Amino acid sequence: MSTSPRLSIDVRSYGAAHSAHRHDFAQLVLPLSGALEIDIAGKGGRLGPCRAAFVEAGSSHTQTSDGPNRSLILDLDPALLEPAVGDRLIRHPFVALTPVAGKLIDYMGLMLDSRGVSADNLRLWVPLLLDALAEEPARPRSRLGTLLAAVEPDLAKPWTAETMAERACVSVSRLHALFRAELDTTPRAWLAEVRLKRACGWLARSELPIAEIAYRTGYADQSAFTRAMRRATGLTPAAYRRQSRKTRHKSP
């Protein structure tokens, strides 16, 4: 009597490190949020939104994290892996995620959170994921391009150097070096400039309340927004809005 190859998926979070363990099936650790450290057969790495890990069947490993985190854990029979894909994952257990792989992981996370996933759907999803993991990620012209594209549409989020470094999968010191090399500024100064520019645009061209603009651009409150505007322009948000409208109405 034959048995079906092992294939299961769930969402897990990790805390303090436990003793090393191993199992007779392969495993993919696919982060959804937060970050964690993983050691696979003596090789350590940090996982986050753009980096996953493959644990070979029988390989000793440990996971640990000191903050909130959620990951998809895909357990699968090694026989389900194409030889070329399996060999590559064994040689390079830490995998840089392409945008396609990231979208597939996010999709599965949403499905598991909302209504679960049938065995049939999981069997259809896994080959797509493995194909995406086998792709070589395109090397961006700017090391910061992906990070900036994530931050700019989401300015309301309380971004810090630490959270930006985590999103870019680099250390905080490396993040500062990249900002200095590519933009000749610091992460904090760049973020302040982007927030202020976005806020000024909304003041000039929208009817949004000033408090709402402050919230959407990530200021702690309207007072913090007012202080930032005064430092940068010498005007309060309300005065800047009035001046912008006068200028616009005078234009031919």
TrEMBL record:
InterPro entries registered for this protein in UniProt: AraC-bd (IPR003313), AraC_XylS_family_regulators (IPR050204), Homeodomain-like_sf (IPR009057), HTH_AraC (IPR018060), RmlC-like_jellyroll (IPR014710), RmlC_Cupin_sf (IPR011051), Tscrpt_reg_AraC-type_HTH (IPR020449)
PROSITE patterns: HTH_ARAC_FAMILY_2
Annotated HTH araC/xylS-type domain residues: 145-243
Sorted UniProt keywords: Activator, DNA-binding, Transcription, Transcription regulation
GO molecular function: DNA-binding transcription factor activity; sequence-specific DNA binding
Name of this chain's protein: Transcriptional regulator
Organism of derivation: Azospirillum argentinense
